[in-house]
Each structure stands twice: as C-alpha cells, then as structure tokens.
Amino acid sequence: MKILVPALKISETDGFLPDLDIFKRKAYGESLLNLIGNTEDELVIALDAPWGEGKTTFIKMWRGLLKDEGIANIYFDAFENDYQQDPLLSISSQLYELIDKKDKNKKDEFKSKALSALKVVGRASLKVGIKALTAGILDETILKDTDNVEDASDEMSDLIDNFILKQLTNAEENRKSLATFKEYLSTLSEEMGHGKNLVFIIDELDRCKPRFALSILEIIKHLFSVPHLTFVLVMNRKQIEESVRCEYGNGVEAEKYLQKFVSVWATLPKSTDQYSIPAEIYLRNCLERMNFETNTPSNKYAVAIFEELAVYYELSLRDIEKSLTSFAVIYNALNSDNLKIHYLTILIFLSIIKVIKPEVYAQLSRKKLDYDQLLKSANLDGLKNTYEDKSQEHELKLLLQFNLSSEEDATEMAQKFQFKNFRDHRGIVDYVCKCMDSLQHVK
Predict the structure, then answer these.
(1) Which listed CATH number (1.10.150, 3.30.379, 3.40.50, 3.30.70) goes with 26-267?
(2) What's CA 405's distance to the chain center, in Å?
(3) What's the whole-number mean pLDDT along residues 116-133?
(4) pTM value surpassing 0.85
(5) In what order do the strands lie in the sheet with 44-48?
C-alpha cells in the first residue's frame, strides 16, 4: 500500500473526465461557465468552500472546460506569490505573460500602460518613481520603506521630495493614468479572449497573508474591474472574513466589507450523486490510488469502518488523505496481511483522531484518558452500530472500553461479550499508539 495518496494529474485539456470528476461536478462547472458567457458585466465571482474540499481540483478540471469552449484563462496561485510586495505587479505580470511573445508591440504597450498605473498606486508609486528618477541608483532593494530616504544624500533627498510633491499635486493626472489603464485593459482583455470574456482565476486566496489577500481584492476592484475580464476567486469565505478582522479589527463587519469586492458568491457543491456521500466516494478513490487490496475479508471490513468513521466525523477531503497516510504507515509496518479486524478497527480510529483531534490522541498516547473521558473528548457518544440489535454498543466503542478498563472490568467484559482471545484484544490502543509515535510521517 502506498503511504501517500498520489496527486491527481489534471492537464489543461482534461476537463471533467469521468475518472477525475468523482463528485460529478461537471454540470455545476457548465453553469458557472454559462454565467460568465452570458454577461457583459464587470464580474468578480467568489467560489467558496471549506479547506480541503477539492476547490483546486475542481478549478483545474474547469480550466479544461474553458479551453474546450475557446475561453482564454489565467491561473494564479496567490499563496505561492504572497511573498511579493505588490499585488498589482503580480496580476499585471500574469496578463503580460498571456500576450503573444511574437507581438512585441503589444507587449511594449502593456508595459508602458502598466508602468503608468504602478507609479500611481500605493507603495509602488514611491519605489518605481525613485528608481526612475535616480536612474536605478536607488531602488526598492535599498529603499524598503520611506524611513531609508534619510540615508540618501541631500541632493538625492531633494529629488525624492520633488517627486513626492509632484505626486501630491498631480491628482487629476493620476486619475487619467488609471482610467487610461483600465480602458486599455478592457480592450486588451477582449482581444486576448477573442471576443469572449478573459477569465482570471485566483486560487488559494484564503491561505495568503491577510494584507496581501485583501490588497488583491482592492486592486481588482479599483484597477481590474473592467468589461471582458472576469475574476474567479477561489477561497474559504470564513477564513477571508477572519483576514478582514485581522487587518481592520474585530469591530469591522467583515461580510459587508467583502460584498464591496464580490459580484457573485458561488458555493462549491460537495457532490451531485444523491446515492453516495462525498467522504465515502473520496475514500474509495484514494484507497484505489494507494493500491490498497480489498479482496480479503479483513480489508473489506477496514474499508467499511473507515467509511463509517469518515462520515461520522464529517472528514474533509484533506482530513481523509492525512488519515489514510497515518493508517498506511502503520499498516505497512505491521505485516498488514496478518492484521486482525480488532487491530484494524483501533488503527483506523487512531489514524483519524490523530488528524482531527491531535490533543485527544496525545492524551490517549500518554495514557491520560480513561474510557469515559475518551467517549466525551472524541465525541463518540453518537456512534451507533449498524446491526439489527441496536441495543449493543458499536464494536469500536467496545474495543476502546475493553482496552482502557481495569483488569477486573476487562475480565468481566470478556466473559459478557465472549471474547475468545482475551489477550489479543487487550493493549491494542497502547501498542498502536507506540507504533504511530515511533513512525511519524511529516509532510
């Protein structure tokens, strides 16, 4: 069994292939495409879903659909680029790359228009202007903030002061520069989109540093909100709202703040398959990619337990992947062909708890929890068996109680529930915890 869930390989042309689109989201992707194709408005769509629910996978498949329809698009991973100081420069560079390399005139024109906008907006105004005025002698690597201006010579300081003064007195000229850039950008977007809307996808926005993420929203609103250019922002809305509060204080109404920047909020559906639960679908898909053999009775049982607990704990797709890796490490180390069902049951439970409730796992590993405490801290009260006799406790709960009880109580339980191999059922929790602690996978 592979330890890691292999990443899905999705090319720009794959689209919603059946073996990739396991949640059957193609129809939703088509609806999103129709929304963009049937409007001429300045559109900013936010695609909202919790962390680990497959937003990036969906977007990669959706890009294939866009390509099939002849719609030009740009994919920008905001998290990978939040080390940059200026989001305007980041977004502009992506558009610049889309211009045909052979069209030197258009590339030069774009650089000229973008530079004018950069000189006007925010910190870039000072940095770009100083670098230009001093012929590159001073640039952003030297002048990381305005305090460093004092280190320049008097002559250079006068030059910088004059530049700042000019910026203050040329407000009308600045407005015209930005208006010219926006007008040019609309025309350019229409040309690059071949008469259709150009789609600019910004992924992982919720994982960025708050200031960078919000700067992107503001730049889009004030400079890139033009006809023929549609932005699709892929995010976890709750996390972005936290970024707003982090940047502007807890008193700000984060939801209303975001409404200024987003035209349409779209929610990524978990699945359109009414007969299956997303956690079960994804778990089976991951196990198949990990080459997990399901032809033995014990492994079939393991899959059933994993599915049951994944649904019970409402695991995200990312939680499932991490839990499977913890499971695979120990499964491979313990001569997996001979693992008995009760070992598999405990191993699966601990693999999940270690991911979603690490503090509970840590206490359990240090033998700091008895059964009643674990029942509460791991939210196991609601776990019921699926047998006809609903009065009997779930097998996982029986195993945990048996392992965490005193010798006297365990002996009584063994007689009551007719555990044939008494010693085989005792000490499993402690043994598996020791294995997991000594074979930790870090990623």
Answers:
(1) 3.40.50
(2) 41
(3) 56
(4) no
(5) 73-77, 198-203, 229-235, 44-48, 264-267
